[in-house]
Amino acid sequence: MRIQKLLPVHQEFPDRSLPDVSAAVRQQMDDAPWAGRVSRGSRIAIGVGSRGIRNMDMIARAVVDFWKSRGVEPFIVPVMGSHGAATAQGQAEVLAHYGIDQASMGVPVESSLEVVQIGTTPEGIAVSMDRRAFESDGVMLCGRVKWHTDFEGALESGIHKMMAIGLGKWGGAKRYHSWALRIGMERVIRSVGATMLGTGKMLGGLAILEDAHHNTAGVRALGADGMAEQEEELLRLVKSWKPNIPVQEVDLLVLDEIGKNISGAGMDTKVVNRGGDNGPNGWNGVPTVHRIFIRDLSGNTYGNAIGMGMADIVHDRLVEQVDFQATWVNALTASATSPGFTPLHYATDRECVERVLPTCGKLDTGDCTLVWIRNTLELGHLLVSENLLPELKANPSIRVLGPAVELPFDSSGNLVSAFGLAA
């Protein structure tokens, strides 16, 4: 089968990383009026989520140390809906894997799925909150503000979404996703968030901003008053930093790995142009991708293979690692079953490529365009087929690193990854 050679390419992005993340967190918390109103001796719940956020352990520790310096007694609660297979132990283990446990933080991590019903939204949505958080003297959340993988809006992922999906634990997350099918997720998280804020329990949150390299580019201490408007402004900012695959159309996109540590959907749907209400290639401003081949699961996803159902073909090695219970719980909680489907799968990378490439709509497979990336978090280095070179040359942010090479299959028919990942 004729297949295009691939060019190693580097995509330049501005480096907006903070020089001292802990100091930036401390400064934001010191300057936050809402933090200054918390009385000494108060017991404060710090909600931390499950995404692969760079420096999350450092950020959480800086928040803990701030509260301790004010004579406050902080503790940590996992805020992650159905993640960790929707078990208290599983969610604590997810945080521990990110370096957040009692030993590293110096405070307890209290993981539970128990909730308290705290009210009802105007639409009739019953709102629940993690019991341990509710029984504290106040709650703050630490989370990343970014675009969401399932919907488009002025308010997407961030503190409001953590208040709803995360603090609601598994039961709340399932309820809110069901409501989202009827009235839309943005309306759900706004309404549930407003009900949460109305209890007076929510002190505020620390919004984390990341640049295109996924470095910590900013932190903002948001108070309960005007939080939605502040989040909207921050979302507009980080969307302007969003990286993309640097071509307009791809016949076959190859990913080395997907995982919950990479994206809530396993892979960022607004990079691969999948998911959402409009199906494949439904997002604006994102390259068209006709076929997706996924080679493996990230080692940090605990077998949760959510998102594999958005691929057209996967390697057997991926299927063999799937924790179907964790994957299906995630899919059912999100009221979106297809991301948990098992795609076509074969025993070697060569067979996967040779099976799927003829389905891309080109009479000659040698005319198909290919892009190979490690995952949707890492778009600085990629391999791009030679027939896309004219488009690459017109992009000033692209640097071609070397000559075109054949797909590097080894003697067993598997690819030797250019990104340092062993099969």
Could you walk me through the main structural features you see in this protein, from its secondary elements to its overall organization?
There is one protein chain. The chain is of the alpha/beta class and 423 residues long. Helix 1 (21-31) crosses helix 3, helix 7 crosses helix 9 and helix 8 crosses helix 9. It is globular, with a radius of gyration of 22 Å. The relative contact order is 0.16. The longest helix is centred in the middle third of the chain and has 15 residues, at 169-183. The chain folds into two domains: 6-13 and 243-400, no CATH class; 21-240, 3-Layer(aba) Sandwich (Rossmann fold). The protein has an eight-stranded mixed beta sheet with strand order 12-11-10-9-13-14-1-15. The chain has helices at 21-31, 33-36, 56-69, 88-97, 102-105, 131-134, 159-166, 169-183, 185-198, 227-240, 269-272, 316-320, 324-333, 349-356, 389-393; strands at 6-11, 43-48, 73-78, 115-120, 126-130, 138-144, 202-210, 216-223, 249-255, 288-294, 313-315, 344-346, 370-373, 381-385, 398-400. The protein contains 15 helices and 15 strands.
